[in-house]
Amino acid sequence: MSAEIILADTPGHERYTRNMFSGAFTADVAVVLVDAQAGLVTHTRRHGHMSALRGVCHAVFCVNKMDLVDWSQARWAEVEEEVRGLAARLEIPDAVRRCALKHTSRPVRATVQALHERTGPETLHRQDNPPSTWHSSALGRSERWSALALRGATVLLTGLRASGKSTIAVTLERRLVGAGRAAYLLDGDNIRQGLSDDLGFYPGDRAEHIRHVGQVARLFADAGVVAVVSLICPLRSDRELLRRSHDEAGLQFEEVFIDTPVAECERRDPMGLYARARAGEIRGFTGIDAPYKVPERPEVHIRTSQTTADAAVSRILELLGAGGG
């Protein structure tokens, strides 16, 4: 059995009264939005009165923007009482009041992971996406590396913010180049200035940012450059994806865990971000209210309280088979 459902979107502004009347005339259910901060405003009451006037027997009052009142139970009770009073005065027999929408007026970023089909705007005909393929170079990797005396790899330096990743990464890049190895620093913050400038710090955005950096690193490594990647990269799953993409391409991938206690990171923090996270000004901050999953089997484990940056870099160079004293 199939049913046809018609949704009529009728704004509550006074100039749209005719639209509201037309929508209510054929409606079986009224869905009325209530702003958690503002409560029952004129628009809300107008919707309710119009629905009751046209004999709509069922109403759902949806309270949105609860996040802007910190999900306050007290504020919810106040709004519920207002709605209850309005429904009673209008004699709406079936008014559902306990419905909250997790909605916000703050900008929300989204990332398109895959585009399955297109629809032509004029014809509305479905347009299948053309398949994408990897276009191989006329030069094989070994030929390129041999001709230019190159040997690519990716070194991932992972750890908390202010753990010392960037300091070690900068030193590693310099010593590699000094030893005659082509190297380039890919710092996560630098990539956010361009390639990932449309991504935030929500879990989905962060995973996409890490994927961006990982793909660039893989291309660098394939070209024969040592990609020195400095990323917080807090989840094992994301780090494993980076490793797997290199393994599948037959490229060297080395994970280096920069292990610094949170207290020390907070002490070093030049931007005061840990303090802001502690104060609740920043949400989802790794090491405070968002997790950092410690690497289980990194190729190199650097305890910054027990070693210097130069000594740490020397250990990584040994792993890469490079000098650079």
Describe the secondary-structure layout:
Elements: H1 17-25, E1 29-35, H2 42-53, E2 58-64, H3 73-90, E3 94-96, E4 117-119, E5 126-128, H4 141-148, E6 153-158, H5 165-178, E7 183-187, H6 188-191, H7 203-223, E8 226-231, H8 236-248, E9 253-259, H9 262-268, H10 273-278, E10 300-303, H11 309-320
Parallel strand pairs: 1-2, 2-3, 6-8, 6-9, 7-8, 9-10
Antiparallel strand pairs: 4-5
Written description of the protein model:
The chain has 325 residues and is an alpha/beta fold. It has two domains: 14-96, P-loop containing nucleotide triphosphate hydrolases (Rossmann fold, 3-Layer(aba) Sandwich), CATH 3.40.50.300; 144-320, P-loop containing nucleotide triphosphate hydrolases (Rossmann fold, 3-Layer(aba) Sandwich), CATH 3.40.50.300. The protein is 38% helix and 16% strand. It has helices spanning 17-25, 42-53, 73-90, 141-148, 165-178, 188-191, 203-223, 236-248, 262-268, 273-278, 309-320; strands at 29-35, 58-64, 94-96, 117-119, 126-128, 153-158, 183-187, 226-231, 253-259, 300-303. Strands 7-8-6-9-10 form a five-stranded parallel sheet, with helices on both faces. Helix 5 (165-178) packs across helix 11 and helix 7 packs parallel to helix 8. The model has no long low-confidence stretch (mean pLDDT 84).
> Biggest sheet: strands, sense, closure?
5 strands, parallel
What's the tally of helices?
Answer: 11
The CATH first-level class of the largest domain comes to Alpha Beta
Query: Strand pairing plus helix content: what structural class?
Result: alpha/beta
Gap between N and C termini, in Å? 77 Å
Helix content class: 25-40%
Kindly provide the radius of gyration, computed on alpha-carbon positions and rounded to a whole number of angstroms.
29 Å
Count of extended strands: 10
- H/E element string? HEHEHEEEHEHEHHEHEHHEH
Q: Give the name of the CATH architecture of the largest domain.
A: 3-Layer(aba) Sandwich
- The total number of structural domains is 2
- Tell the overall outline: elongated
- Annotated CATH topology of the largest domain: Rossmann fold
Q: What is the name of the CATH superfamily of the largest domain?
A: P-loop containing nucleotide triphosphate hydrolases
